[in-house]
Specification:
Layout lengths: L1 E5 L4 H12 L4 E5 L12 E4 L5 H7 L3 E6 L7 H14 L4 E5 L11 H15 L3 E7 L10 H7 L1 E2 L13 H17 L7 E5 L7 H12 L4 E2 L4 H8 L5 H17 L7 H9 L6 H9 L2
Parallel strand pairs: 1-2, 1-4, 2-3, 4-5, 5-6, 6-8, 7-9
Amino acid sequence: MTILVIGATGRVGRHVVDQLVNRDARVRVLTRDTAKADFPADVEVVQGDLLDIDGLRAAFVGVRTLFLLNAVTGDEFTQALVTLNVAHEAGVERIVYLSVFDADRAVNVPHFAVKYGAERMLEAMDFSATILRPTYFIDNEVMVKDVILQHGVYPIPIGGKGVAMVDARDIAELAALELIRRDEAPGKLPMTTINVVGPETLTGDQIAAIWSDVLGRHVVYGGDDPSGFESNMATFMPKWSAYEMRLMAERYVSDGMIPKEDDVERLTTLLGRPLHTYRETAEALAAG
């Protein structure tokens, strides 16, 4: 049977497709623009979006297992619930859903609350689901690379509690393993939730210190100022989105993203290898 990947063109989704293909899975992706879908030849590409009901229904024909990654948009909640309803209608019960760390606690952050709402639907409607709850993506650092390299400032208000940033490759490989596990199971498996974290819980000062070491010159932490972060984000994204980034940053500062005691060990066991580190990405970005 086919595994349908929704959200395949982003940092995580593309890695998920590659991981599945490398494991000889039969993969279909749903995308708005098939002309921009640069996937291996044996990946089936279908056109549609999550509010196109006819296209969505067609995408689920012959599918047994779904990977769902919703983009952070103003109508993310509608897209998530519509997709899950159509999946249920099509008899697709096996799902890996990409949520977010502390989705049930950070309920004032819109996309956290959305993902927790989708988690509740998965449980209430008795899906056979793996819920992945990743922390902040290390890969997002590409957005602030120029500020770090040109101005010697690490600008994201991570705070002093610490955030266990995670590499998209680790998220994707875990997602692929869970998709295949559920797809190949003879029946419904119990619902499970996995915190997807990085190997180190880093503060803003510690991240700046890593950059200082990698670059061989002093990099400072820009401080715990979510309001300033919002202003900077608003220069290149919609103001509602920049405000949401501020609310998320306020959570970093007040609570951090701190793994449970056995989270790292659990992930290392599932993947059969060490997790990727923050330093790896810093070195790659510094090298150009």
